[in-house]
Amino acid sequence: MVVTVAENEYKCAKNYCNRLVRRAKLKLFDVKINNNFHCPRKLWSALKELGVFPHNNSSEVTCSPEDLNNYFVSFNNSSVSENLVQEEINHVLENVLYPSFILQHVSPSQVAKALQRINTNAQGVDGLNKRMLVDCMPYCLPSLTHIINVSFSCNVFPDSWKLANVCPVPKVASPSIVNDYRPISLLPTLSKIIERLVSKQVVHYLNNLIPVNLAFVNPIILPQLY
Question: Which residues partner with 181 through β-bridges?
């Protein structure tokens, strides 16, 4: 069997490429482990990402969508009376001696900062994720800021931002019934932006309202909302 020069060069290049891939994998493994060695949560995540632990292959949902939907809906709070909630809020406000809480308008820089703080790239029903919004931010930031400020002025949360993709996640290795699943809601990234902006203003209001020695929240955790 005659081996041509081209075939020999191909084999040499292939072997060289395989060596580079193996070195890159070893380097990646070493970096992932060493950088996360002192954080068990990140270390565990890195090990799963590197394929050290076998992945669960039972990703196929064995229950019908209708059964899962009925099971998940049975645990929501849709039966809570809106009038009852409003009565409780009014009762609290009547006994408050401090200025009422009013949402303040936000600036484009605050909206951009809230987007950068989001730590997931999952997308909701609108198909928009964080990476896409970051890329489009120079063009859509003024309009997005205007929508959020109108929402604050009208005290109305956009209905389309309340929708979520509900994904059934197995609670056991081999799920067979609806009780073996738990729902995970993937909310729109835009709703996460407005929620973060609201939480910042609420925390700021509570910090001024409640004395430090009577505060019911951990002051170490509060800066993480900003």
Answer: 170
What whole-number distance in Å separates Cα of residue 161 and Cα of residue 164?
8
Q: Does the pTM exceed 0.70?
A: no
What's the mean pLDDT in 144-158? 94
The burial class, CB within 10 Å (0-12 / 13-18 / 19+), for 223 is exposed
Residues ≥6 apart with Cβ < 8 Å to 167: 183, 184, 185, 186
Most confident of 48-52, 63-67, 154-158: 154-158
Measuring CA to CA, which residue among 146, 76, 73 is closest to residue 108? 146
Closest CA to 210 of 85, 90, 87, 97: 97
178/70 Cα distance (integer angstroms): 9
Secondary structure element (H or E) that encloses residue 62, with its range: none
- Inform me whether the pLDDT recorded for 141 exceeds 90: yes
Instruction: Answer whether residue 170 shows pLDDT above 70.
Output: yes
